[in-house]
Amino acid sequence: MEPVLSVRGLRTCFYGDNHEVRAVDGISYDLHAGKTLAVVGESGSGKSVHALSILRLLPEPPAKIVSGEIIFAGRDLLKLGRQDMRAIRGNRIAMIFQEPMSSLNPVLKVGEQIAEAIILHQKASPQAAWAKAVDLLKKVGIPHASERSNDFPHQFSGGMRQRAMIAIALSCEPDVLIADEPTTALDVTIQAQILELMKDLQKEYKMAIVLITHNIGVVAEMADDIAVMYAGRQVEAAGVSALFKDPQHPYTRGLLNSIPSIYACKERLEAIPGTPPELTREFPGCPFVPRCPVAMERCQTQDPPQFHLANGRMSNCWHQEAQSQERRHRYKAATES
Amino acid sequence: MSATEPLLEVRGLKKHFLVRKGLFGEKGAVKAVDGVSFSVMPQESFAVVGESGCGKTTLGRLILALEKPTEGEVFFEGKNIYDIRRSELRSLRRDIQVIFQDPFSSLNPRMTVEQIITEPFIIHGVYKDQAERKNRIKELLDCCGISQNHLSRHPHEFSGGQRQRVGIARALALNPKLIIADEPVSALDVSIQAQILNLLKDLQKEFRLTYIFISHDFSVVRHLCNRIAVMYLGKIVELAGSEALFNDPQHPYTEALLSAVPVPDPDIEKRRKRVLLSGDVPSPLNPPSGCHFHPRCRYALESCKTLPPALTEAKPAHWAACPVLPFKEKHSLAALIEQ
User: Fold this and answer.
1) How would residue B335 be classed by pLDDT, with cut points 50, 70 and 90?
2) What is the structure's pLDDT at B237?
3) Which of B199, B194, B243, B192 is nearest to B220 (CA)?
4) Is residue A140 pLDDT above 70, yes or no?
5) Is the predicted pLDDT of residue B248 greater than 90, yes or no?
6) Do B162 and A270 touch (CB under 8 A)?
């Protein structure tokens, strides 16, 4: 099946006076219709910048997409002009943000903000757009939708604002929804409601979702595939159960070991020592080396490339080199015979 | 003082904030803390868990004597902390210290790490001897995992985790007996969060500390605490030992909270049943009658709308403010996972 969205070797840098920050330094994945891909990483790992790069929302300068391709509906989004990009943004690819208070306009009624997107992209009349906005609010579970659509954002609670954001994102029935930490600002019971809503709507609209989060629990609940990011790079990619059962990259292993669970009480958490590196620094080897428990000499000097493993998995760790070579030989032997 | 005497005892504590509804509207009261009682034993880790707006932070501020309560008392080592002289209050503040949530705003940006950690010594007039003071600072840095070379740095030169370590070192500086930690790890990344949680656990053992841990995160609390109080709209709805609370919750709100926490294991996630709560937390200005939780409760009876439930001992040492759930059949966390 053809993927809806393919990201290939995306690199985004920010340029300061005399330094560059490699915010995204290589991420590649395929996203299929109706599936959820989770991009996981800690703050500063480049997961949000990657999302903004897809929608071309970063101000240039200081930002610059240095290389890569973002293939959507047969076209490379990085080569599109402003007009073409506007027709896609918010229409075919929509986004919801972490902080629903700051991403809604405080002086416009909630209904108007939903109708705005419908009028812009679907050339609907204001009346028709308003009626659709009320329908959408109903669909995302706002009680008394026709009255509440006249409310301003401050009259909504945090959970309701995020529901309104989702209604805006869904207004044009997008093919791809990018959700950047959609539940991080919410309480757990409200988070559970919003995640449930997103799952239901995904089924109904057959949307593909790129879910950006740092919460491993949310990933386990929502994702089909996972891309793990560290210091701007994608260090591992795998299906959800494969990744949780058998993480390949030492960072992924460390990350999974360091989270406390409500189902098991460990005496001590296995924390990853140290802190993530500064992105302004040029590292000759693997960026995870200073914190890595299994680092070899080679890791200090040579940057590991992406190794392709069985079942479509990928890992950026020298420890997987042998595994990947063996697979290549087997593949070669099989195709030759 | 015998070991069975509580270090801290909170009795019928209430804090109501008066607010005006609208510019000229009638006066109302937000009952941030509304009749809370519990006691904490020495060297215990006691957690107060709840969602935003449930009053957990106000409770922490009351115990620190940063707020005057509307009603009720707090006894620390048998002394009522609201009824002592100023000089006594000062020495009390040596014994009760606090770690704040946000290490970015709780450290003075103009002070160096050394100044931040020395400030409590100056205020309380201890470690006056320079050599002694240097030693104490070195000790604190060592046990909190901060490098000696960082003493002359300012907070902005540190990452979030490092800053939280400085905050912890400052809290430990005066050898406190009780530490109130208000969401100490919620601003940190997971890999750093684990470091800080391990540190807090180690320090507790080493210095025989008592913790009151204020948090919204059940998985963090389970890791660190042995007794948990769950708050909803200013009241404690359940109070029990950690294992008992997780394995056999006796209040529907606790049950829903536990089932809402996403579990980092896709297999469990696929099999488990969710208790989804409908609606939002009601406004504390105008809480529902009877049991505050009844509009969102799946077990609610007609009587729940009028009768406010009291916190009663549903099982030995397991208190819950629900007259319904303890009599229902098995509803434990494990039962929510289909086998």
Assistant:
1) low
2) 93
3) B194
4) yes
5) no
6) no
Q: Which of A148, A160, A188, A214 should one mutate to test binding to chain B, selecting the residue with the greatest count of B CBs within 10 A?
A: A188
Sign of the alpha-carbon dihedral angle for A286, A287, A289, A294: negative
ipTM of the complex: 0.81
pLDDT exceeds cutoff 80 at A243: yes
Q: Give tens-digit pLDDT for A93-103.
A: 999 988 777 88
Alpha-carbon distances, residue A297 vs A183, A290, A292, A318, A319 (angstroms): 41, 12, 12, 11, 12
CB pair distance less than 8 Å for A261 and B256 = no
* Confidence tier at A86 by pLDDT (50, 70, 90): confident
Helices (H), chain B: 56-63, 86-95, 113-124, 130-144, 160-172, 190-207, 218-224, 242-247, 252-260, 266-271
- Which residue, among B265, B296, B297, would best test binding to A if mutated, counting the most A CBs under 10 Å from its CB? B265
Residues from chain A that touch B281, judged by Cβ atoms under 8 A, are 187
Question: Residue B295, SS3?
Answer: helix
**Selection from B119, B113, B130, B56 nearest residue B93 by Cα:** B119
Is residue B279 over pLDDT 80?
no
Q: Report the 3 state secondary structure along chain A.
A: CCCCEEEEEEEEEEECCCCEEEEEECCCEEECCCCEEEEECCCCCCHHHHHHHHCCCCCCCCEEEEEEEEEECCEEHHHCCHHHHHHHECCCEEEECCCHHHHCCCCCCHHHHHHHHHHHHHCCCHHHHHHHHHHHHHHCCCCCHHHHCCCCHHHCCHHHHHHHHHHHHHCCCCCEEEEECCCCCCCHHHHHHHHHHHHHHHHHHCCEEEEEECCHHHHHHHCCEEEEEECCEEEEEEEHHHHHHCCCCHHHHHHHHCCCCCCCCCCCCCCCCCCCCCCCCCCCCCCCHHHCCCCCHHHHHCCCCCEECHHHCEECCHHHHHHHHHHHHHHHHHHHC
Provide the 3-class DSSP secondary structure of residue B45. strand
Cβ atoms of B165 and B192 within 8 Å: the answer is: no
Nearest CB to B219; choose among A159, A219, A261? A261
User: In residues, how long is chain A?
Assistant: 337
Task: Render pLDDT for A176-227 as a digit per residue (tens, 0 to 9).
Answer: 999 998 888 788 888 888 888 889 889 988 899 999 998 888 998 899 999 9
Whose structure tokens read 């007794």?
B227
Calpha distance A278→A285 (Å, rounded): 14
Number of residues that make up chain B: 339
Residues in chain A closer than 8 A to B277 (CB atoms): 189, 192-193
Between chain A and chain B, how many beta carbons pairs sit less than 8 Å apart?
132
For A171, how many CA atoms within 13 A lie in the half-sphere containing its CB?
34
Using an 8 Å Cβ cutoff, are A241 and B290 in contact? no
Question: Quick check: A217 and B262 in contact, CB under 8 A?
Answer: yes
**Residues of chain A that touch chain B, judged by Cβ-Cβ distance less than 8 Å:** 42-43, 157, 159-160, 187-193, 195-196, 214-221, 223, 240-241, 244, 254-256, 258-263, 265-266, 268-273, 275-276
Check CB contact under 8 Å for B189 and A216: no
Residues of B in contact with A160 (CB under 8 A): 280
Tell me what pLDDT residue B331 has: 53
Question: What percent of chain B shows pLDDT beyond 70?
Answer: 94
